[in-house]
Design a protein that fits this description.
The strands form four sheets. A five-stranded mixed beta sheet has the order 1-2-10-7-3. A three-stranded antiparallel beta sheet has the order 4-12-11. A two-stranded antiparallel ribbon has the order 5-6. Helices cover about 50% and strands about 10% of the residues. The radius of gyration is 21 Å and the shape is globular. The protein has a single domain, classed as Cytochrome p450, CATH 1.10.630.10. The chain has 16 helices and twelve strands. The protein is of the alpha+beta class and about 400 residues long.
Length: about 400
């Protein structure tokens, strides 16, 4: 298949033919990301199995016989190395149980009216502009405002968080890691101050709830609080930004399905699931490492090698989805993997779904004639690793 960069803009623009080829010919495929060898798993059943396979670990310290030195990071960033996303059992279950005490369905449902209010305000601004850049004007400020308000972060600081997280989520090369250090240091200093302020002066917000979370006498340490807040901020806006943006672009490129939705808004829940399946914001599940030398799908994987389950490929697997390359907003069943699988299933999925239901419906109700103001080939995709998202989405409302 030739050499290909899975983090390049060109690849991100349309990775689906490549993944279809993998599913047909090479269900496990070796490639490179920077200097690191990675294996891509592309078929639906294989990805599901990988995400539940205890032979793979998230924490590289759990690799058997590993003589690798722990990656050096500045002391201020150490907490990020212990976030819930990168933990194995029993640490992962402990952290998830504790944060569930704070990130409750009641707290999420309480935000419904506020999400509608924020959406209404943003759409009013769009209406005045007529021509807009949908990410900057809508898809970003909506989830960013929601998650930072839930956490209790002042509105004046929202822009900082987007700047910090975009730098951190670039492809995991040594250069990008070095370039992102200032942003990561600034973020951790801010979060440490925030956590301490909530210990001293509790408020009715998620940061306070995380600080106070308790299960059978167990609490989150300060470092665990920092890592959890970082994860919620990153996942709480970055993926939802791209869920909205990718979803709107997909609708604009499929006018018949867009009109179908305009004529029947009861399809919003199933449409949201189908848009998440068809153009997922998380293209690949986060890294997993072979705990020991093993064989997977006939390939010999060495201890410590990275294996990635390709969500975007699994979601287009014809063995699971009839006419998988066809957008069907009424698709049912729709067991896509865009929110993950197994113990690492997305904690924020209920909040993301609520935001998407509201965003898609209110946007289309207000602007049924929304159109794309650029040719698809002119759109620039971000050269990121796990995430698949646009840099800009110019529209006319």
């Amino acid at each position: 298949m030739g050499k290909i960069s899975i983090v390049s803009r060109q690849f991100k623009a349309d990775p689906f033919p490549f993944y279809a080829n993998l599913r047909a010919e090479s269900p496990i495929y070796p490639t490179q990301v920077g200097s690191r060898k990675v294996w891509l798993v592309s078929r639906y059943d294989d990805v599901v199995s990988l995400l539940k396979d205890e032979r793979f670990v998230k924490d590289r310290r759990n690799i058997e016989g590993s003589k690798q030195k722990e990656q050096w990071v500045p002391a201020i960033l150490k907490p990020l190395m212990r976030n819930m996303l990168d933990q194995d059992e029993p640490d992962h279950r402990r952290l998830k149980t504790l944060v569930h005490q704070a990130f409750t369905p009641r707290r999420i449902e309480h935000m419904r009216g506020r999400i509608q209010e924020i959406t209404h305000i943003l759409l009013n601004h769009l209406e005045k502009k007529r021509e807009a850049e949908l990410i900057h004007d809508f898809a970003l400020p909506l989830p960013m405002t929601v998650i930072t308000e839930i956490l209790g972060i002042p509105a004046a600081d929202h822009g900082k968080f987007h700047h910090w997280t975009r730098a951190i989520l670039k492809a995991p090369t040594e250069l990008n890691a070095l370039l992102s250090l200032p942003q990561m240091v600034a973020l951790m200093k801010y979060l440490r101050t925030l956590v301490q302020s909530r210990r001293d002066q509790p408020r009715d917000d998620l940061v306070t709830a995380i600080v106070q979370a308790e299960e059978a006498g167990d609490h989150l340490s300060e470092d665990e609080c920092l890592a959890m807040i970082f994860l919620l901020i990153t996942a709480g806006h970055e993926t939802t930004v791209n869920l909205i943006t990718n979803g709107v672009l997909t609708l604009l490129q499929h006018p018949a399905e867009k009109n179908r939705l305009l004529n029947d808004f009861s399809l919003i829940p199933s449409a949201t699931e189908e848009l998440a399946r068809f153009s997922p914001p998380v293209e690949m599940a986060t890294e997993r490492y072979a705990r020991s030398d093993l064989t997977l799908l006939g390939a010999g994987i060495k201890a410590g090698e990275m294996v990635l389950g390709v969500i975007a490929s699994a979601n287009r697997d014809e063995s699971q989805f009839k006419k998988a390359d066809v957008l069907d907003l009424g698709r049912n069943p729709n067991k896509h993997l865009s929110f993950g699988q197994g113990m690492h299933y997305c904690l924020g999925a209920p909040l993301a779904r609520m935001e998407l239901h509201i965003a898609f419906r209110m946007l289309l109700e207000r602007f049924p004639d929304l159109v794309l103001k650029a040719r698809p080939e002119q759109l620039r995709w971000r050269p990121t690793f796990v995430i698949r998202g646009l840099e800009r989405l110019p529209v006319r409302v």
